[in-house]
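Intended use. Records like the one below are meant for learning the mapping from a protein sequence to its folded structure. Do not use them to infer anything beyond what is encoded.
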Amino acid sequence: MKLPNGDKALVPTAKIEGYALNFKHEKGKHKARVFKAALDITIENAAVLHAALHSAARNSDAQFEETTAFDDKYIIDFEMTTEKGSATVRSAWILDKGSDTPRLTSTFIKEMKKERP
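Structure written out for the chain above:
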């Protein structure tokens, strides 16, 4: 299945630059370290991750996780390759009740692949 309305997906800059790629964020710094090690993605080139997440929301298969009183939750795992290497990136999405716009809630490296020479 695809993420409902994946073409409308919101990827908040705060989730990417303020958290997942932020070496100074108490919880996000670990994700930032792995994004740097696996794909050489940092705040300076955050647009690369931003674009990949938008593409995954539109094109990749999504796994429905659960329905809560407030939203529906989905997971999308996708392969990402840069000049540094490749990795499986996990992205978590919610679709709030009464909304038709999915929103990114988290992203991280699920699995590092081999580095490119």
